[in-house]
Write a structure and sequence with these properties.
about 575 residues, 4-stranded antiparallel sheet, about 65% helix, disordered C terminus
């Protein structure tokens, strides 16, 4: 909760004004039964119309002030709660956006989405209702009890006898409900995860005829969530009936005791009528307070979950810079790394390339090829050893400086709904001439010029109206558009045909001579002309050198070439 309080602090003055208006409205509500009692016991017996109209006008004035004050305060409460929630969501989104990959792995994307949406909504409801009912309820409760004490102490004692019982019910329910709501939000994370996986992989699910299996997975997590919500609902369902029962029993006792007191001449009928009105006010106030406890239970659980992310410390601080080694563009020095801390995904990896050179990385699936790029981008920090970019430890670069010098195309990248130009530009200040040049180098101009719109060709979300090869060429154009000093291509040409792939490699060699390029590939043809080739196997380097050197000295690389290429060293053309 401490992390949330700092968002409320700037609105203390505004909140105080809202509470003051609510206080005025509550006082007006409390005055109406008292005025009615005076009319019945003192004004009506006089038999004069004018005093009745005056006291009736006072009641009407109190009612109007109450309505206007409540409407104004409720609007102010909604506005302040909305602004506070807006800031919380903004900062939470920014914090999640700056998580390291390791932190995001630990928190998980579904949990982040759930906290950013449903948890912040619960906080919004807690803030708004606290201002609307959380203030009005206690004022009506305390004020009603105080006024009834001045009217009839005996009847008030009957009323007060019921309040500790209600307090015990509220305390018990609140204590039990907070852990249940925390569990409910955790199960909601699981449901978001399953739903996200099914929506993202719907084509694969259908292709493999796993619809029934995925339906079963969803039903299982949905049932768990429903059971948890039912348990929370069952707990909360105790509050209102129990409170209503206790207060109605108290109301019955008030009527019974009041009848005897009137008969004994110890009180007047107007006092009993006013007392019943105050009892109703107190009843509604107590029910409002119990609803607030329900909302606070959910809001407190959500606030803790949101605060966990907001207060999560940065685990990738920028280290002091050391003198750079001028010739090195990329260097790994005895680097070891593990995603889960169980076994190394990279083990004692060492290599280096100079500026302007091209490095090809090849190996079996899971050998650590993409992990090398993740460390270069500092998505993760190495557990041991040193990763250097442009002769400088990657940990000494501020993230915004490091990543502006790098262009990257991931295996599973994304495209936005918009135009081809929007996707290549990607919110950078780049003129159309630069976009056209990047599209030309990436071999994307061919399919763009097929459309009369050219760079303004519409692109659906995730590139659903493009083929796999068209998507990859558009993504490569995005990486080339800013003319990066370091270009990282993670299997970026796997969907391209051989001719287009060869044309792309020629364009990169000709137009990007000063750009250092790291290419992760499955095909030997994509990296055979690289200045250096790194062969990985289970996270270890088993070969590093030129194509010719590796053919001679690296059996694994030679085996790959024999599988993919003929004896003459040419790519084997296969057709599906």
């Amino acid at each position: 909760m401490k992390g949330i309080l700092r968002y409320i602090r700037p609105y203390y003055g505004y909140l105080a004004l809202t509470l003051a208006i609510k206080f005025v409205a509550s006082v007006m509500d409390l005055l109406i039964p008292s005025i009615l009692a005076q009319m019945i016991d003192r004004v009506v017996p006089l038999g004069e119309a004018r005093p009745i109209f005056l006291w009736g006008g006072a009641m009407l004035l109190c009612a109007l002030i109450s309505v206007l004050s409540n409407v104004t305060a409720n609007r102010m409460a909604a506005r302040s709660a909305g602004k506070i929630t807006l800031r919380i969501r903004h900062d939470l989104f920014c914090r999640i956006s700056h998580f390291s990959a390791r932190q995001l792995d630990r928190v998980s994307i579904p949990s982040s989405v759930s906290r950013l949406t449903s948890d912040t909504y619960n906080i919004n409801q807690m803030l708004a209702r606290m201002q609307r009912i959380g203030v009005r309820g206690p004022i009506l409760l305390v004020g009603g009890v105080a006024i009834t004490l001045t009217m009839d102490v005996g009847l008030t004692c009957v009323l007060l006898a019921t309040l500790p019982l209600i307090a015990l019910v509220v305390y018990f329910v609140t204590k039990k409900s907070v852990p249940v709501y925390t569990r409910q939000q955790s199960v909601l994370d699981d449901m978001v995860r399953v739903t996200q996986e099914n929506i993202a992989g719907v084509r694969v699910v259908r292709a493999l005829s796993k619809t029934d299996y995925e339906t079963g997975r969803f039903e299982a997590v949905n049932k768990t969530l429903a059971d948890t919500e039912q348990r929370a609902g069952n707990l909360m369902a105790i509050t209102n009936p129990a409170s209503t029962l206790i207060l109605n029993l108290g109301l019955t006792l008030v009527v019974l005791v009041g009848a005897f007191r009137i008969q004994a001449g110890q009180t007047q009928p107007g006092v009993i009528i006013a007392f019943l009105s105050y009892f109703t006010i107190i009843l509604n106030a107590m029910l409002g307070i119990t609803r607030i406890f329900i909302l606070c239970s959910k809001g407190a659980a959500s606030a803790r979950r949101v605060s966990e992310l907001l207060e999560l410390p940065d685990d990738q601080p920028v280290l002091p810079a050391a003198p750079a080694r001028k010739s090195e563009a990329v260097a790994f020095s005895h680097v070891s790394f593990s995603y889960q801390g169980v076994r190394d995904n990279l083990t004692d990896l060492s290599f280096s390339i100079d500026r302007g050179q091209t490095l090809g990385i090849i190996g079996a699936t899971g050998s650590g090829k993409s992990t090398v790029l993740q460390l270069l981008l500092r998505c993760y920090d190495a557990d041991r050893g040193e990763v250097r970019v442009f002769g400088q430890d990657v940990r000494t670069f501020p993230p915004e400086i490091l990543r502006t010098q790098i262009g990257v195309v991931f295996q599973n990248d994304f495209l936005l709904a918009g135009t081809a130009a929007d996707n290549i530009r990607y919110f950078r200040d780049l003129p159309d001439e630069v976009l056209s040049r990047a599209a030309f180098l990436a071999q994307a101009d061919a399919f763009l010029h097929e459309s009369p719109d050219g760079l303004q060709r519409p692109v659906l979300a995730r590139g659903n109206n493009l083929s796999g090869g068209q998507k990859q060429r558009l993504l490569i154009a995005r990486a080339l558009a800013a003319q990066p000093a370091l270009l990282l291509l993670d299997d970026a040409s796997s969907a391209l045909d051989y001719r287009t792939d060869a044309a792309l490699r020629r364009a990169l060699r000709t137009a990007c001579r000063d750009t250092t390029t790291v290419i992760v590939a499955q095909r030997v043809s994509a990296i055979r002309h690289a200045d250096r080739i790194l062969v990985l196997d289970e996270g270890k380097s088993i070969g590093f050198g030129t194509h010719e050197t590796l053919l001679r000295d690296c059996p694994v690389y030679r085996s790959l070439c024999e599988i993919q290429m003929g004896d003459g060293g040419e790519e084997v053309q296969t057709h599906a």
